[in-house]
Amino acid sequence: MKTKKSQKLYKKAMTLLPGGVNSPVRAFKAVGGNPLFISKAKGSKIYDVDGNEYIDYVLSWGPLILGHAHSSVVKALKKAAERGTSYGAPTKLEIELAELVKNAFPSIEKLRMVNSGTEATMSAIRLARGFTGRSKVVKFEGCYHGHVDGLLVSAGSGGATFGIPDSLGVPSSYASETIVLPFNDVEALRNTLKDNWKDIACVILEPVVGNMGCILPHKEFLAALREETEKYGVVLIFDEVMTGFRVSFGGAQEYYGIKPDLTCLGKVIGGGLPVGAYGGKKEIMQMVAPEGGVYQAGTLSGNPLAMTAGIETLKVLKKSSTYKKLEDKMIQLEEGLKDAAKRAGVKVRFYRAGTMFCSYFTETEVVDAKTAKTSDLDKFKRFFWGMLNRGIYIAPSQFEAGFISLSHSEKDIEKTVKSAYKTFKEL
Ligand SMILES: *Cc1c(COP(=O)(O)O)cnc(C)c1O
Q: By residue range, what is the domain housing residue 370?
C-alpha cells in the first residue's frame, strides 16, 4: 500500500489543525500510524489520495446508508444548489423532511432541525430541564452523546480509546449535574431514580450503544427505563443519532417497541450533510422557542441542501424492499465473519442490530463498558492494519460500530470475508 501523498498531507495538516484533523478518532491514534487522506468515494468504495481503493465500512461514521454519492441524492443536491444554498427563512423542504421523520417515528409529534447530533442532544437536555424544572441528567457509562460539556463523562469511543474519562475544560460543577450508571443495570437505574428523582430532569441513552462498538440493550432494561421514568415524571431521551433509520426505519424504538418522550436524530437523516434533529411529545416540544420559553436557534438550521440530502435518503429507505436488502447483506457478512474467525481459530464475539455491528476479540459476553474493555486491543490493532492493507476500511478503533450500505455488493462482502480470514490467521 503506497501512502506517500497521505503522509505528506498529514504532515502539512499537523501544522494547521490540532492533530491534523477536525475530529479526534480520524487521527488513527488508537491503532497507531497515520490517517489516510481521502479524495473521492462512490457506492461502497472510498479512494485515498495515493489512488488506493477500499471497501468502506465506516461510511462517514454512519450517515451513508445508501452508500457514497448515491445518484438520486447527488442529482437532487445539484439542482438544490442552483436554487441557492441558504435563505435563513422557512422552506417547504423542512416540512417534507419533518413529515418523513414524524411518520417513521410515532413517538415524535413535533421536531426541530439542527446541524449536528451534538446540537440535538444538547438541546433535548435543555428542553427536558426546562420542562421538568429539574437539573440532573442520568447517562450510561460508555454512551456518547456528542461533545456536550455535561455529557463528556464516561463517554465511549473517544474516552475509551484515549483513556481520557473526561475532558479538560468541563467545569466540575457541570459534570456534577450528570449521574453515570452502568448500561443494562436495572437495579442501579431503579435505585438511582428512587433516591434522586426530584432532581432528575432526564435519562438519556443510546438504545443500542454504537460508541462502545455495538452493545445491545436487554429487554428488561428498556422496559425498566420506560416504567421508572414514567413513574417519576423524568423525561426519557433516546439518542438515536446513530440508530435512527439504521437499525430499522423507525430506529431502535421501533426495533424494540419502546416509546421514549424525546428522540435525538442525526447521521442518516442528513444523508451525508450536516443535520441533526430532536423531537417528541407535543407537550414537551411546545416549550421550544418561539412557541415556548426554552431557547434554541441556528443560522443554518433546516439548510436547503441538508434537507434535500435527507429527503432523498429517506425516500429510498422508505421503499418496502430496502431494509430487507440491507438485512440480507448484513447476514451474509455476519455469517461470513463468524465462520472466518472460527476457521482461523480466533475467538471473537460478534454483535449487531440491523446494519450496525461490531466484533470484539474476547470470550466474555459484552453487555456494558466494563465487558467491552475485555477485548484484546492489540489484536484489534493488528486486525485493523491487516484489513486496511487488503483494501478493507474499518473504523480505526475497537469501540466504534461498523456499518454496511445498500451499495455493498455480494462480491464486496465475499472479498471482505476472505480478507478477514487471512487477517485472522495472522493474529
Ligand atoms: C455521532 C453521535 C452523536 C454526535 O453527533 P455529531 O453529529 O457528531 O455531533 C451523538 N450521539 C450519538 C449516539 C452518536 O452516535
A: 4-69+320-426
